[in-house]
Automatic annotation (TrEMBL):
It comes from Lactobacillus kalixensis DSM 16043. GO terms for cellular component: endomembrane system; plasma membrane; proton-transporting ATP synthase complex. Its main location: membrane. This is ATP synthase subunit b. PANTHER family: ATP SYNTHASE SUBUNIT B (PTHR33445:SF1), ATP SYNTHASE SUBUNIT B', CHLOROPLASTIC (PTHR33445). The chain crosses the membrane at residues 20-40. Keywords: ATP synthesis, Cell membrane, CF(0), Coiled coil, Hydrogen ion transport, Ion transport, Membrane, Transmembrane, Transmembrane helix, Transport. F-type ATPases have 2 components, F(1) - the catalytic core - and F(0) - the membrane proton channel. F(1) has five subunits: alpha(3), beta(3), gamma(1), delta(1), epsilon(1). F(0) has three main subunits: a(1), b(2) and c(10-14). The alpha and beta chains form an alternating ring which encloses part of the gamma chain. F(1) is attached to F(0) by a central stalk formed by the gamma and epsilon chains, while a peripheral stalk is formed by the delta and b chains. Belongs to the ATPase B chain family. Gene3D superfamilies: 6.10.250.1580. CDD domains: ATP-synt_Fo_b (cd06503). It is found in: Cell membrane; Endomembrane system.
Length: 169
């Protein structure tokens, strides 16, 4: 065997193996492309789309949260204004009620004074009438002793009236 035949035989073996490896590699590449590359690419595309959707959703949620925060801030401001208004109304009502209570108390006090004045006048009139009766009795007793005779009831009344008229003048 010469060097050439040996080289040719070894080249032929290597060339045959190389072609075989190329055919097997090509078949494997076609199988990988058909069975692995397509599903992997599809999976990567789905993942890419999911990430884009998640980012869009996150941005949308952030905007919604910002809008809700602004609405809550406005609602809080409105509720503070309403609370201030309610307090103002309550103070005004309390002042009005206080004024009404004081006015009612003053009216009641005036009414009590009028009743007391009327009762005092009545008591004075009753006292004067009682005094007239006592004065009449005393006058009659004195007159009986002085005159030494009994007067009739009509005479007693006339004497008392004359005596009282004399006291008032």
């Amino acid at each position: 065997m010469t060097f050439q035949t040996l080289f040719a035989a070894s080249s032929h073996i290597y060339l045959g193996n190389t072609i075989w490896y190329l055919i097997v590699f090509t078949i494997l590449m076609l199988l990988i492309k058909h069975y692995a590359w397509g599903p992997v690419s599809e999976m990567m595309e789905k993942r890419r789309q999911k990430i884009i959707d998640d980012l869009d959703s996150a941005e949308s949620n952030r905007k919604k949260a910002e809008i809700l925060a602004n609405e809550r801030e406005a609602a809080l401001k409105n509720s503070r204004q309403e609370a201030t208004q309610i307090l103002s109304d309550a103070k005004a009502n309390a002042q009005k009620t206080s004024s009404q209570i004081v006015a009612d108390a003053n009216d009641e006090a005036a009414s009590i004074r009028k009743k007391a004045d009327a009762e005092a006048k009545k008591a004075k009139a009753d006292a004067i009438n009682d005094a007239r009766g006592q004065v009449a009795d005393i006058s009659v007793a004195i007159a009986e002793k002085v005159i030494a005779k009994n007067l009739s009831a009509e005479d007693q009344k006339d004497l008392v009236d004359q005596f009282i008229k004399g006291l008032n003048d």
